[in-house]
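Researcher: Next entry in the queue.
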Amino acid sequence: MRLSEYIMVLLAALLISTPAQAQTNANVLLRSVYVKVQKAKDYTAEANITVDMPFIHMLPINAKIYFKQKDKFKVESNSIAIVPRQGFDQASKILADTGSFTAIKQGDEKIGKIQTSLVNVIPMSDTSDIILGKFWIDAKQHVIIKSQLTTRSSGTVVTEYTYGKEVEYGLPDQMIFSVDVKKFKMPKGISSDLNKTDTVKETNANGNKKGKIIISLSNYQVNKGIPDSVFKK
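Model: Structure for this entry, 233 residues:
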């Protein structure tokens, strides 16, 4: 085989194998995250929730979060708590069903001091609520540093994760959600509650329709056992 022909064959092989390799690498990354979060069969945590949204001003709220595999989730609070489920269990649901999506590694990106791998997730079904998922993964600790989920029901939700003592379970100390206020679903009763407490404020000068929800988590109790009855109350 002549040198020119060899080079053409080599280039063709690279073009064919690169997408497959990117998909394999992406699936390995996602699987490593999923294996880690599966270590926490159940947990409770104390949550402090701060909401920063146009038209809304709320004092920080304290709540208790309950989670049990595979999809039991509950927020307990004396006030109305705005907690996006996307950051708690929706990502885990996506990672659990690898047959329902195509994953492609898009490259590497540094977030702060952490080197991450960016993985795009595209559902195979056009009936899925998820349109597109993006995960920035710390391949050393096998955790998600940032996610971006675009859904039909709630628009685009970007979540940033910070980890501490519970990183071995993939459980964060803090989650910062950036949401599209127009599409994000507020808990029932939030409007009446705001009217009663006179906490409505005008949109800022730029007409910003983005909002943030900051959840700080502490006092985790992991794998202590939670009865199913807790989620029925």
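Model: Residues 161 and 175 are 5 Å apart (CA to CA).
Researcher: Noted, moving on.
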